[in-house]
Write a structure and sequence with these properties.
There is one protein chain. The protein is built from 21 helices and 9 strands. By secondary structure, the chain is an alpha+beta fold. Among the domains are: 73 residues, no CATH class; 176 residues, Aldehyde Ferredoxin Oxidoreductase Protein, subunit A, domain 3, CATH 1.10.599. The strands form 3 sheets. It has a 4-stranded antiparallel β-sheet with strand order 3-2-1-4. A 3-stranded antiparallel β-sheet has the order 5-6-7. A two-stranded antiparallel ribbon has the order 8-9. A hairpin with a 5-residue loop joins β6 and β7. α8 runs parallel beside α10 and α10 runs parallel beside α13. The structure holds iron/sulfur cluster (SF4). Iron/sulfur cluster binds next to loops.
């Protein structure tokens, strides 16, 4: 796509390429000033854990629309690659530039002064959470068998940032132009060669603690392979965790985990099962303990030890989406108040309010990590509304934002209902109610009838 519009080409030579090789072809043909959206072999095979890759500032295919199997949708349409060339395109003009500039100043100051968006995230990335969540007892380990991992400090954000700096990578970096927070980084191997972007917390957990792997280099390689083959790192880590529980390979077997991901890329029969995600792996190998909701794998927080996120996992229309109502913010990080993570009281209201706010924030196109500052600082929330108003010449209020969030959630829920989803699917797997998790020895205690109240506002 360019200033002249969209052109569609048939190019069988791209078939089967990994995202990294695909981008090398793009560089030769279109140069290095374009951006790409693409799928790897997993999307072409229409596997349920297939992602869509977007290039970052270094033109690496590291930024993925990971969840929900969207890569399989692109593959089913026969679309391998979209090249975007903005040369000669006009930049959109704000309706009220001075007001936008003033609101943006307050906005940037707000992000820079908050301890999460101005400190934890830029210094250590999302992986700052490994030590915090491990300490809380909600760090799922060995396919959600325990809430703490002995090897956590070896794969923490602090360890990763130190390695990145030592090896000539970057511990603080933006994933695209204009990011104020800069939670990303560049991960090099021991010889200083690029391996991947800084692995996110979810990836470090999924391929690390969840599989009993405490080797940062192995996790970074798994991250690279997922990006190359075009896979959601959460569902891949969860799928391998279930495969480990089934006895295919042992917990902690990093070479075995790397081999399983490579098999997905090659499309072997076992690889296709693994690439279909944790729910399918559990069915094929007869594992009851499948950490999934609506067929999608749970992310990096145990819902028994952090019950607010359990409510979000169970009820969010996408299924097991931590970003849809990130209760960790209030249960653990104490942003926007505090609700005790180990008790059921207050979790429904917490998840409901966060799901409404998140749907609205997502609709702005802002990175969700701004939410920490927005939750805690009323002037930062107001600055976001002021920026939207100045850009589009609108006069939205805070109430309009809430109404927008509710209307988005209603649309999503209506879609699910029409697709055959029922309230019985707004549930965590039963074992979370039956099996207590150490070290707190708690089960998920939010009642089903309360889960059914989340969207009653
Ligand atoms: S804060 Fe958001 S936009 Fe910035 S680097 Fe992190 S993920 Fe990317």
């Amino acid at each position: 796509m360019s200033k002249d519009g969209a052109a569609i080409e048939d190019d069988p030579s791209l078939k089967g390429l990994g995202n990294y090789d695909l981008i090398e072809v793009v560089k030769k043909r279109w140069g290095e000033k374009v951006a790409c959206i693409s799928i790897g072999p997993a999307g072409e095979m229409r596997l349920a854990a297939a992602s869509i890759a977007c290039t970052d500032m270094e033109m690496h295919p590291t930024r993925h629309a990971g969840r929900g199997g969207v890569g399989a949708v692109m593959g089913s349409k026969g679309v391998k690659l979209i090249v975007l060339d903005d040369e000669g395109c006009k930049v959109r003009e704000p309706k009220e530039p001075e007001k936008l500039k003033a609101a943006n100043k307050v906005w940037v100051e707000g992000l820079k002064k908050h301890p999460v968006t101005g400190g934890g995230l830029p210094n250590y990335g999302t992986n700052v959470l490994t030590n915090i969540i491990n300490e809380s007892g909600g760090f799922p380990t060995f396919n959600f068998q325990r809430g703490q991992f002995e090897g956590a400090s070896k794969i923490s954000g602090e360890t990763c940032a130190a390695l990145e700096t030592q090896r000539g990578g970057l511990a603080t970096h933006g994933c695209h132009r204009g990011c104020v927070i800069q939670c990303s980084g560049i991960y090099n191997d021991a010889k200083g060669n690029y391996v991947s972007k800084q692995p996110e917390y979810e990836t470090v957990w999924a391929h690390g603690a969840n599989c009993g792997i405490d080797d940062m280099d192995a996790i970074a390689l798994l991250d690279r392979l997922d990006d190359d083959i075009g896979l959601d790192t959460i569902d891949m880590g969860a799928a391998i965790g279930v495969a480990m529980e089934a006895g295919l390979i042992k917990f902690g077997d990093k070479e075995g985990a790397i081999d399983l991901v490579r098999q997905v890329g090659k499309g072997t029969p076992l690889g296709r099962i693994i690439g279909s995600g944790a729910a399918t792996v559990a069915k094929v190998f007869g594992v009851e303990r499948a950490p999934v909701v609506k067929g999608q794998a749970l992310p990096a927080y145990d819902p028994r030890a952090i019950m607010g996120i359990g409510v979000t996992y169970a009820t969010t229309p996408m299924g097991a989406d931590h970003t849809a109502g990130y209760a960790i913010a209030t249960n653990i990080l104490k942003c926007g108040g505090f609700v005790d993570p180990l008790k059921p009281e207050g979790q429904i209201e917490l998840s409901r309010n966060l799901q409404i706010a998140t749907a609205a924030i997502d609709a702005t196109g802002m990175c969700l990590f701004i939410a920490f500052a927005v939750l805690d600082q009323p002037e930062t929330f107001q600055a976001l509304i002021d920026m939207i108003n100045a850009f589009y010449g609108l006069s939205l209020t805070g109430d309009d934002v809430t109404a927008l969030g509710k209307s988005i959630l209603k649309t999503e829920r209506d879609f699910n209902k029409a697709a055959g989803f029922t309230k019985e699917m707004d549930r965590l797997p039963n074992y979370f109610k039956r099996e207590a998790v150490a070290p707190h020895n708690v089960t998920f205690q939010v009642k089903d009838e309360d889960l059914d109240r989340v969207f009653n506002w």
